[in-house]
Amino acid sequence: MASLVRQLQRYRLTTAEILYHLPDHPSVLQSYTWQDYDLAPAYPVLRGFLDFWGRSLEGRLHSVTVASTGLISAGELRTTSAYLTLH
After folding, report:
1. Distance CA 39, CA 55 (A)
2. Which pLDDT value is given to residue 42?
3. CA 67 to chain centre
4. What does the chain look like in DSSP terms, one character per residue?
């Protein structure tokens, strides 16, 4: 229920691929996938997570790729060429 309320408040499902340097092997990159509801285009939730990362975790950030989509949108209208009933 809480996720529906957030979606109605214009939050979008946001996924970020975070590439970071391994602390013990700085020349090696590791990938981390983060996902939460966030407000585009400012992404305050993601920015808060990245701030936490910079303060608390040892792996130095390399890059962040973000994808975001609204889950509630206008419906699509399609016509059908057949109506079938299965018993």
Report:
1. 23
2. 93
3. 6
4. -HHHHHHHTT-EEEEEEEEEE-SS-TTSEEEEEEEEEE-TTT-HHHHHHHHHHHHH-SSPEEEEEEEEE-SS-PPP----S------
Ramachandran class of 10: left when φ > 0, alpha when ψ lies in -120 to 50, beta otherwise: left
pLDDT at 10: 84
CA atoms within 13 A on the CB side of 77: 0
Q: Which residues of 29-57 are buried (b: 16+ CB within 10 A; e: fewer)?
A: eeeeebeebbbeeebeebeebbeebeeee
pLDDT < 70 positions in the chain: 1, 71-80, 82-87
